[in-house]
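Example for tutorial group B:
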C-alpha cells in the first residue's frame, strides 16, 4: 500500500507517493535529491541526518516520512546560499569548524534551532544542543566557537536600527 504525502521543504511545496516504511531521510535524499542531509549510522546515533521539522531538530532516519505530512522541513539546502550564506555557515567557515563536512549539515541545523530559541547561548548550552551530533574530525572547540560567532553576527544584523543623521543634529 502506498501513501500520498504533502509537505513543505525549504519553503517549497512538495508531494510524493511513498511506501509506509519510507523514512524522511530516504524521501529527502532518494526522491527529491536533497543529498545535503547525510545518511550516517541510519540508527539515530550520529546526527548526520538532522533536519528541522517545524523548526525542531530531528534525526530524519528515525522519522517516518508520513509523520511529516503537512509540516515544514528545512534541510541544509534551505539554510543559505554560496552568495548569501547564513551567519552560521559564514562563522563555521571562518572558524574552520568542519573538516570532512559529513557532520556539517546536522551541526548547522541543530545550531540554527538553538539560536532561534536562545540567541545568546552559553558554551554549555551549545554543547547540550549539539550533543546528538557526532564529529569525528575536528572535535568540538571550533564548532562551539563558530556557534558563538554566529550568535554575534545575528545580533549585529538584528542590531539597533540605523540612526537618522538629522536626529543627532537636533
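The residue assignment follows.
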Amino acid at each position: 500500500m502506498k501513501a500520498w504525502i504533502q509537505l513543505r521543504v525549504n519553503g517549497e511545496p512538495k508531494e510524493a507517493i511513498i511506501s509506509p516504511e519510507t523514512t524522511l531521510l530516504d524521501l529527502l535524499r532518494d526522491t527529491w535529491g536533497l543529498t545535503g542531509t547525510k545518511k550516517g549510522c541510519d540508527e539515530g546515533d550520529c546526527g548526520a541526518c538532522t533536519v528541522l521539522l517545524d523548526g525542531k531538530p530531528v534525526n530524519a532516519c528515525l522519522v517516518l516520512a508520513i509523520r511529516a505530512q503537512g509540516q515544514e522541513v528545512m534541510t541544509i539546502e534551505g539554510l543559505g546560499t554560496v552568495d548569501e550564506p547564513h551567519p552560521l555557515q559564514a562563522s563555521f567557515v571562518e572558524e574552520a569548524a568542519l573538516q570532512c563536512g559529513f557532520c556539517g549539515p546536522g551541526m548547522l541545523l541543530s545550531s540554527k534551532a538553538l539560536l532561534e530559541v536562545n540567541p545568546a547561548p552559553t558554551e554549555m548550552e551549545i554543547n547540550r544542543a549539539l550533543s546528538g551530533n557526532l564529529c569525528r574530525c575536528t572535535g568540538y572547540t571550533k564548532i562551539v566557537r563558530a556557534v558563538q560567532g554566529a550568535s554575534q553576527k545575528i545580533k549585529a544584523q538584528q542590531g539597533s536600527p540605523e540612526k537618522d543623521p538629522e536626529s543627532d543634529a537636533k
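The helical segments are 24-31, 87-94, 104-117, 123-129, 141-158, 165-169. Compare this with the pattern of hydrophobic and polar residues in the output above.
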